[in-house]
Write a structure and sequence with these properties.
Elements (H helix, E strand, L loop, with lengths): L38 E2 L1 H21 L4 E8 L2 E12 L4 E2 L6 E2 L5 H13 L28 H5 L22 H7 L18 H15 L3 H10 L23 E3 L3 E3 L10 H4 L2 E2 L1 H12 L3 E2 L2 E2 L5 H5 L4 E2 L8 E2 L4 E5 L2 E10 L2 E8 L4 E7 L6 H13 L8 E2 H12 L1 H14 L4 E2 L6 H9 L3 H14 L2 H17 L4 H11 L2
Parallel strand pairs: 17-18
Antiparallel strand pairs: 1-3, 2-3, 2-16, 3-4, 5-8, 6-7, 9-10, 11-12, 12-13, 13-14, 14-15, 15-16
Helix pairs in contact: 1-10, 2-5, 2-6, 4-5, 11-12, 12-14, 13-14, 14-16, 15-16
Amino acid sequence: MGIVKTTGFKKLIIFGTAITFIFVFFSCNKPQEQPAEDIIKGNLGIDLQTKLESFINEVIEAYDLPGLAIGIVKDNEIAYAKGFGFKNIETRDPITTTTLFHMASISKPFVATAIMQLVEKGKIDLNAPVITYLPYFKLDGEQYKEITIQQMLSHVSGMPDVQDYEWDKPQYDPGALERYVRSLIGEKMIGKPGERFAYSNMAFECLGDVIGKVSGMPFADYVKKYILDPSGMKESTFLKAVGLAENWASPHLSTVKTLVWNGYPYNRMHGPSSTLHSNAVEMCSWAIINMNHGTYKGQKILDSSSYEELWTQKAQIGSKGRSKSVGLSWFIGEYKGEKTVSHGGGDVGFNTTFIMLPEKNIAVVVLCNFIPAPVEKVSLAALDVVLGYEPQELDLPASVRVLKRLADEGVEAAVGEWNTLKQDFPEKYDFSEQQFFNPAGMAVELDRVEDAKNIMKLCLELLSETSLNYASDYVKRYLKTHPENKAAAAMLEIFNNR
């Protein structure tokens, strides 16, 4: 069951899937002068418009997305950038190329860039223990004293991940980051430092605090002055006001249908790992300056030599033979024989992906104000067009159409839709059972009782006993910590009375 912690709203767990990783590019060192209109440049831009837009529109319809924005770079220029759909499905304000999205974990390469800037200045040693810079950094046990800056950047620190991001209790003051680091004293290590890959947002919060203490500036201010502004990312920011600014996208979720989430995934104590806000054009700027190894149009953020550290494998992910590894925050892989450098992000209401093919000088960024969204599929379709291939056909989720029938006509009609699609379009749709876990989990997390009841009734008709037991176990665990949740109680009652 797709699970978002109500008190944290960061970890949306989609059964059988993993966070995807993607990148962005730099096309003009004054992006604030770029128009909000679409960018379609040259023959490649026209080719992308012709071959990609129908694919994107099909994705939006098939997944019931509010919308998305995309930017594509080739040879130091934006070849194509466009917004699709709406910032908010209730107000119907359109997404443009300058609409700001919560970027989630795409924040992390900015942390790595800041660390490398301070390494170049001789203020940080990658192999030094973190306690060298943060004497108050402490976890339960003694091994935390061995954790180095490099190990944190490469997710091999042995630190656990954040369990509660407290999106529902956001902090906005510059002292939030240090308070968070000081609060880790009871956290237990999950492995020996340097031993194995284990993704940790917690480690990146600590790195953000290191940047603040070494530079003498709050983390968000440092990144703004030394990375965002020199990269031409004038509108991008790690900070958010209490209210939602006019040109920012709203977060969306889905139970039986897509809806606007009234909260927002922001908390300054999780800024380094998660709270970059940017748009398609400015992320293209970020891509270009990185593809040029830190220098572009008279602006410089890093020495070229620093990219040897950033983009060289520090740890392998998964078993040997799988072309996935991690450098300093960046993920390194391969697509159709070309090296990729990427990162992706997912928080409640947002999914993002950013991928570069540095040896081809190509990059794609996809931003969506919905989770789970097939941002990786869109990015790979864009890469296919740029590389001269036809985009692969979509494998459409049957659950979206089935849940719409559930919302409009009830369980019997929804079961009929599932069976009809299975009979008439067995190759076109994805019929995996786990696609129902996320909407079911959302119905519970948001305490939408009727949605939860109807989804459980539908699951009883469609899912195997194994999947049903997985769902019921989640509901039981959730009720132990949230006994007041009526949606979970209603689901469990229906399951027990089946």
